[in-house]
């Protein structure tokens, strides 16, 4: 992209219905008429740039716009590197993070999350080597790549300790990559035996590159993905939680997820920091 920020213009002038639904929104966002949202569009189908139109697309994009519309504001997307998102939130550069971020206990020390989908870390390999892996335990001792910017390396190490080392097998060799695309490139080059990425992205990947990759077993973690808020922004967090509950009730939430083939990742109800919304 040529610009670091893309202003979403699909939400028009405030209407009476929008104003009514914005009652829980803090006054400063009503006055500004927008929220600034950290997002890095390199994780399809969650967020990506359509090469034909240079516009943002994905589950997070559609859901973010729907939530903002319900709250009576527009979205200003801030294209920020994943590793810089938390500091941008803490310094007030952005109002919230909506970019395929896992709700992890260690992140809750500095952030709150409104959880909106379930996810998991998933092993896969190239189709030509799928026969070597009858189960994910066959990755013990293998070289596996995953984005170093995510929680996957730590999670893979824990999995290796419990599944490989504890059973007398060689440990998993974790290679931190520059992102999921880099992991796939190295995998196709034969530099890796396998790779790990979020289970929600693999169905989309398989449609883009048919007969190229094979998913092995089930995800070895179970996590929620959430919209991140600063600890002192509970009013904004709660307004988003209420808006998400309304989208679930109306069916708009389901429509968005099914549009991208991710109906299986939906939640029945909103959670805050992993706990059901009371």
Notable features of this structure?
single chain; 278 residues; 5-stranded mixed β-sheet; 4-stranded mixed β-sheet; 9 helices; disordered N terminus
Basic shape: globular
Q: How much helix is in the residues?
A: 25-40%
Largest sheet: 5 strands, mixed
Sequence stretches where pLDDT stays below 50 over 5 or more residues: 1-20
Query: Strand percentage, roughly?
Result: 25-35%
Mean pLDDT: 90
Number of extended strands: 16
Care to describe what's here?
- The chain has 278 residues and is an alpha/beta fold.
- The chain has helices spanning 16-21, 27-32, 59-71, 85-90, 152-163, 180-188, 202-208, 234-250, 252-259; strands spanning 5-7, 34-39, 42-43, 47-50, 55-57, 74-79, 96-97, 111-119, 121-126, 143-147, 173-177, 194-198, 213-215, 223-230, 266-272, 275-276.
- It has a five-stranded mixed β-sheet with strand order 11-10-12-9-13, sandwiched between helices. A four-stranded mixed β-sheet has the order 1-6-2-7. A four-stranded antiparallel β-sheet has the order 14-8-15-16.
- Strand 15 and strand 16 form a beta hairpin.
- The longest helix has 17 residues, at 234-250.
- Mean pLDDT is 90; it is low at 1-20.
Quick overview of this protein structure:
This protein has nine helices and 16 strands. With about 280 residues, it is α/β, with parallel strands linked by helices.
Outline the secondary-structure elements.
Elements: E1 5-7, H1 16-21, H2 27-32, E2 34-39, E3 42-43, E4 47-50, E5 55-57, H3 59-71, E6 74-79, H4 85-90, E7 96-97, E8 111-119, E9 121-126, E10 143-147, H5 152-163, E11 173-177, H6 180-188, E12 194-198, H7 202-208, E13 213-215, E14 223-230, H8 234-250, H9 252-259, E15 266-272, E16 275-276
Helix pairs in contact: 3-8, 3-9
């Amino acid at each position: 992209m040529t610009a670091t920020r893309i202003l979403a213009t699909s939400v028009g002038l405030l209407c009476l219905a929008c104003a009514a639904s914005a009652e829980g929104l803090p006054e400063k966002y009503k006055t500004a008429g927008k929220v600034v949202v950290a997002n890095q569009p390199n994780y399809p189908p969650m967020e990506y740039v359509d090469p034909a139109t240079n516009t943002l697309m994905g589950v997070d994009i559609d859901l973010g716009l729907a939530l903002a519309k319900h709250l009576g504001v527009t979205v200003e997307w801030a294209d920020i590197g994943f590793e810089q998102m938390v500091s941008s939130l803490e310094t007030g550069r952005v109002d919230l993070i909506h970019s395929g971020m896992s709700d992890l206990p260690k992140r809750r020390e500095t952030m709150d999350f409104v959880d909106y989908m379930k996810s998991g870390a998933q092993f896969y390999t190239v189709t030509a080597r799928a026969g070597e892996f009858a189960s994910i335990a066959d990755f013990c001792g293998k070289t596996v790549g995953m984005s170093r910017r995510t929680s996957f390396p730590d999670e893979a190490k824990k999995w290796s300790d419990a599944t490989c080392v504890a059973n007398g097998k060689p440990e998993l060799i974790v290679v931190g990559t520059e992102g999921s695309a880099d992991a796939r490139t190295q995998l196709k080059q034969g530099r890796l035996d396998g790779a790990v990425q979020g289970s929600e992205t693999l169905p989309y990947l398989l449609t883009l590159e048919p007969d190229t990759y094979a998913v092995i077993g089930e995800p070895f973690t179970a996590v929620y993905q959430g919209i991140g808020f600063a600890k002192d922004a509970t009013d904004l967090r709660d307004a988003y939680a209420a808006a998400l509950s309304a989208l679930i009730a109306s069916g708009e939430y389901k429509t968005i997820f099914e549009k991208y083939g991710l109906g299986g990742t939906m939640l029945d109800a909103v959670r805050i920091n992993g706990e059901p919304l009371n």
